[in-house]
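If you are new to this repository, start here. Below is one unmodified record pulled from the training split, so you can see the exact layout before writing a loader.
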Amino acid sequence: MFYSGSVLGKPATWFPYGEAGFKELREKERFYRDVTPYIAELEQLGEKLVFFRPPRWGKTLFCRTLEQYYCVKGDRSLFEGLYMGKEENQTAEMGKHLVLFLDFSIEVSGTALDVKKTLYDKINDSIITFNKRYKDVLETPVPIDENALRSFRYAKEAADASGYPLYVIIDEYDRFANKLLVENRDTYDEMVSRKGDKGAKVDSVLRSVLETLKEINPSRSFITGIMPLAMADASGYNVAKDVTHKKKINDVMGLRKEDVTECLEALYGDDFSKVGEHLSLLEDHCNSHRMVAGGTPLFNPQLSYGYMEQLADGENPGSEGLLDSNLQVSHNMFDLLLENAKTPGLMDRLIAGEAIPMPRLQVRFGVRELLNSMNIESEEFVLSVMLSHGMVTWTEDTENRSVVIPNKLVLTQFFDRLKRQM
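And here is the target side for that same chain:
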């Protein structure tokens, strides 16, 4: 049995902390929670889907799983031992698409024109990768244009000519927009929501990308992000169906209790006291996230993996080992809410452990709605924004729809400074 530090069991590298590549995880035989049964569920929900989850919840890993599943050049061996590795479970569309994978997590320094160029370069880089992957499938390579929207259209034409349908995956569609929202709101407006304003230096880039996606009409598309903010402001892809709150895919991302238990048993074997000790700590600090009312309680995956990676290295990190410095986007949004919200006593009630009624969830809102005084006076609106970032979560009660702070770690990360002021 592998020995690492003071722990008998799996090495620290077995835990996919910070890893988002499905191919790499499977080839290196790292832990992978089998979420492939949800692929069929998604197909039944529609062809053009939008899906939101808080930061650090495994969106990219799931997108990469979809990429390998649908790609005509995908590696089928990666699915061996998984639900979709069995032929009887596979859908008719497995391995039938050319997949264009776009990642919008870019730097946002400089002017709106600078950010636009960075995004266009990122899109063109993805299309260059597309050309390399499908060089023996495409009749001719996709032309790369300085205006990446033209390259985007050419990619669809090339897919049509090849006889294969196009699947477009956009990961982190709002990553750059969320940073701009806090750091440079004028640039946000130019990059995301402005359309044809007189004197504008640049038309809304995100709007244009989404309008182009709608125009080329790929066979399938899957878009992920943190919240519907930029999607509402850009409003260029109104044909997509938001499946974020569908109960049947509540736990497509995140870890269930049985997953965390499996990981701890891989470390400690039949040392049930150790398994129980660390499971209890993780339950107190990382668990109880419900993405829909009454849904399965889920552990934050990256925080859990990071903690168990430290255990595998022979460390005893305690709750201090769970703090994550990669949540700046959510911290910025929390600060924005504190600065603008006019909901007296709401934060105090949450800190006190009260479940706050929220009979109706706001599922579509833009920056103007976020900063509109009438909305900021609405507890329902403020809580909907907080829910998108994992600051609050649904309770298990499906009849009296309410939200609470999910666990001690969220309380520490977002609310501790308020507690000190009380």
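Two things worth knowing about this chain: Residues 1-8, 196-202 have pLDDT under 50 and may be disordered. The longest strand covers residues 98-103.
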